[in-house]
Amino acid sequence: MSEVRSVPADYGRSRLTVRTRWRATRCGRRDSHAGIGAGHYAQELAGGLATALGELRSGFTTRHAALIDRVREEAARIVTEYDRRDGDAPAALARFGGWVSQWRTEVAACQQRGLALTACAEQELAHYRAAYARAARQEEPPAAQSPRDAVLDGSWTGGPDWSLDDPSVRRALQILEQRLGPTAAQAGR
Which stretches of sequence are listed as region Disordered (predicted)? Predict the structure, then answer.
């Protein structure tokens, strides 16, 4: 039975390395000759992809923890100033808007890297399936579930609002939208 190691870190180039293509092709031929179905390779690939995406998100949140802390602190300051004191703090609002924009830009870049990892996993599965079909002398490659379907959730394909679900952050975003207009508040989306 073939072994699929964790999805390599060099997948971010949106194309497979020669070694990965070779390994997928070799495993496809070997599994076809052994009579092993293609589903297990897809499951192991999805497991490796889930691990890689988890590591990507974990590393991202660790590296950007200070930024999200600043966003939350500034949001609390804005909510206090605007809702409780009925004051006006345009400088704090501008800082908050800038940090939220920066956060959303960083999240969008991380999401794109995750989608590139997924695309490479799908390419690897396609190489495996093609080699499997050639070795078994089949017209069509065997069916196997796409890693994208098994692993990606809405946080990878949706808006860049990771960790912006705190009530004070949501309220500060509403204040920002009221003061600056909806297009300025959604900058970075």
Answer: 137-165
